[in-house]
């Protein structure tokens, strides 16, 4: 499972074998089956998760049981309830598996430790967070000003492989449109 | 203008006088009057801006001239077109002043330089970006699942001082609701 993580870090910063082994020693592994929960509302959120294999979603369920999807994560992406993770509070999101998944888990304590010990890892996580910030700003703009059709087309263009793997009901929930609207757009 | 910046950094990391003077030497200053533009669409985005005094907004204007507000920034906040800044491309947002403003400007080159030279500054910007990421996730969830009333109340709770300073038309544009809806909510 470690080769994927090394490639992922090395997209931003080169690492020696020794450095990578040291970093890897701060991760634990986790395997989950399709439909299993990684995090449920009110859980204490200990870890951020790097997806080695599989597909997950993080969502908020309102009082009427309606689901709003905050993010998907497939291979080479990270997922957790970031608000709860960074502030070490309990989850307001549910995270579960759309496919069988293999994960590498990094606690906040270990993340802060390797960031503090290795400047290049602090650099890696700063860059990742900057990229994530920009992606979220684009999504906000798209929620504010784009039609359902435009949002659908943007997502299809950005993440074509998601469409092969994620049921349409969930895509609709991510885009904030009804299942019926999505069916009309994608037919 | 520098005391505000020092306080801002020291909320996350302590600095010696020498370190702070060195950091400050990488910033330039800018003063703008109310209504003046800081960034216009298609401009090359060179800097990120720390607000020492004043109030600005970053927005997207669509083909019909309708304005969608990405963010406000007042004292102790940062503002730029982050997509353009991090990828060193041209702006898709407009940024202008709601009040006379005093700014400290940091180029991407200088930001990367001080992050690389001072590990604690890389740490500062990682932490800031993490906090920003979580705030944007909360806004996405609020756009997906909250009513106009709830969004208005959340904003009022989070940033009460914004409401004293920002015209209601702009608050409506930030929340993605009509001016009429907002008037009804806030009356």
Describe, in plain words, how this protein is organized in 3D.
Chains A, B: It comes from Solitalea longa. Chains A, B: InterPro entries: cNMP-bd_dom (IPR000595), cNMP-bd_dom_sf (IPR018490), RmlC-like_jellyroll (IPR014710). Chains A, B: Residues 30-115 form the Cyclic nucleotide-binding domain. Chains A, B: This is Crp/Fnr family transcriptional regulator. The structure is a homodimer of 187-residue chains. Chain A is of the alpha+beta class and 187 residues long. Chain A has a domain at 2-108: Jelly Rolls (Sandwich). Helix content of chain A is 50%, strand content 24%. Chain A is built from 9 helices and 8 strands. Chain A has helices spanning 2-10, 17-24, 82-87, 108-117, 119-145, 148-158, 160-165, 168-175, 179-186, and strands spanning 27-32, 37-39, 47-53, 55-61, 67-74, 78-79, 94-97, 101-107. In chain A, the strands form 2 sheets. A 4-stranded antiparallel beta sheet of chain A has the order 1-8-3-6. In chain A, strands 2-7-4-5 form a 4-stranded antiparallel beta sheet. In chain A, strand 4 and strand 5 form a beta hairpin. In chain A, helix 4 (108-117) packs across helix 5 and helix 8 (168-175) packs across helix 9 (179-186). Chain A is globular, with a radius of gyration of 17 Å. The mean pLDDT of chain A is 93. At the A-B interface, helix 3 and helix 5 of A face helix 3 and helix 5 of B.
Q: H/E series of chain A, N to C?
A: HHEEEEEEHEEHHHHHH
Instruction: Name the average pLDDT of chain A.
Output: 93
State the helical fraction of chain A: 40-55%
C-alpha geometry of chain A: globular
- In CATH terms, the superfamily of the domain at 2-108 in chain A is Jelly Rolls
